[in-house]
Amino acid sequence: MGKSALVIDKLVKKYEEVTAVSGLSLEIKDGKIFGLLGPNGAGKTTVINVLCGLLKPTSGTASVGGHDVQKESKKVKDLIGVCPQETAVFTYLSGRENLELIGNLHAMPKEKLKKNVDELLGKLSLLEESKRRVGKYSGGMKRRINLAMALVNDPSIVFLDEPTVAMDPQSRRAVWGFIKELRKKEKTVILTTHYMEEAEELCDMVGIIDHGKLIALDSPIQLKKKFRSKNLEEVFIKLTGRGMREGL
Amino acid sequence: MRTQRVFALSKNNLKRTTREPAALFMILMFPIILTLVFGFSFGSIGGSQTSSYKIGVVYEFPEGSSQTWSQRFIDGLEGTEILEVQVFATIDEAQEELVQGKIGGIIIIPSNFEEGCASFAAAPEDPSSWENATVQLYLDSGSMFATQAIPPIIQGVIESTIYAGHETAVQRPIQIGSPSLVEASKLTAFDYMAPGIFAFASLFLIMIVGESFVLDRESGLLRRIYTTPTTSGEFMASHVISNMLLAIIQVVLVFVMAFLVGYRPLGGALGLVMAFILLSVFSLSCVGFGLITASLARSPGAATGIAFIFVIPQMFLGTFVTAGISAGAQAIGKIVPSFYVTDALTSLFLRGAPVSSPTIILDLTALIASSVIVLLLGVLLFKKYGRA
User: How is domain B53-175 classified at the CATH fold level?
Assistant: First the structure.
């Protein structure tokens, strides 16, 4: 058994009267791609935000790379890369400048930063457009820069919050290929998505979350076998009585 | 604190200002246009009439008494080539002229003026032997020149004609306003406005800072930055540094534009250095007000509106717009940081006060204190309410 990249124990997050995450416990091993699945509003992004140190949990604990997210948040942030759900890019900067800024915020050495930036821009087919301001990019290109910004510091643990939402099928396939490469590099990837086919294609393990509670945890193959389903969408319907994209 | 992070974020903030047309206009183009428009309208270019202003003088002592010191004083006033003196027999006569706007102000020379000056001349180091006298002034409240320029000119003349050679004495038998020396020989309305224009231009940093924080929060960029090891201190330091740099660039631009339209301030290179320091410190308060704005505002539009709550009072109470405001408003003005910038720059550029003069030091101290308080308040509020 490998080391744990991430351990969550009885995590609760409440916003006044609303409980976004309710007693979530989870362990993710190093070098795995873990899919956190659930409909919109299920609590996926809240979990990610707690793990990144952006939100304080109401109760429970979480550690990333062996560091408590509350007590050692700086050490956690040194290890992680985060691709947020929204396209959070600096539109007045060029693609290259966006990556360089994030690399500098991770205090990367100049040479390593340049190498990583060139490599990422090349792999995401953005090298030619790298000097243009991101504000002038197409929606798909902005999403790709959004993803590259999460990886520029060569993090060992990567959080991808709905990385392919609003992408055309071709760009989505390209990003899937890119995520598979991360597995080869033995990166741990925590991927949230409500696209079941994405989870089936990429994830070693999936956790299905609904109303802030973990309702299933296993590999996609095992889950389909256990619930005698053709795909994860059917698994979700059998678990909750409704489709993944029907909302809450 | 990692300098690499602070430097990268500061560079990013500056790029935002130079690459976003709206920010570029507000921070750099607006001060240029403002200075040029005011300079052409009120400056020496275009032949504005500024060379002399009439002022009435009334002696309170009986006819035939010695007028050695008062004559020296009057000669000094006329020697400035700014004031034209007209002597009146009674206060009533002079006031009639003042009400009709024929003169800009009245100087009442008290009955013990001669004794006061003589007692100082006899024993300049012995305040206990001086006879104190107060020169009374009546000024046209509707005239910016009268309210802002005449008192320092009179003070300057007293300094040069009566106290000459005794600049170090702190107490004086004859007092008017704050002590400063007037060296200007030809002043335009723009000369009185220019110090306030420097502060006025910087005020718009509040709006830019407030809007940029709200936009960064809305677009998820703040969250993105906080998923990196960047600390709040590094983030805030970057904004302080970049806005200080912008304030300095503004000073240079306003100064160059003002120079082009004929503005020739006193104070020399040291005065200019002090202006950079004053405006840099003032930018701290602008960042603070920007942070308060961003803490309260939920959208960029709201940020613009809220920023005006901080811009307008500072504009009216502490920049070139202050001419003719009531005494009460002038007193209230002392609570806004811009007041201290304009006051210090007026002393530097208009009156030629040395950078070490008490007025400048006091203004700088008050400015530092108020700016630091506003900045800390802004940081605290933003940390509590502005980040989410």
Answer: abc type-2 transporter like fold (3.40.1710)
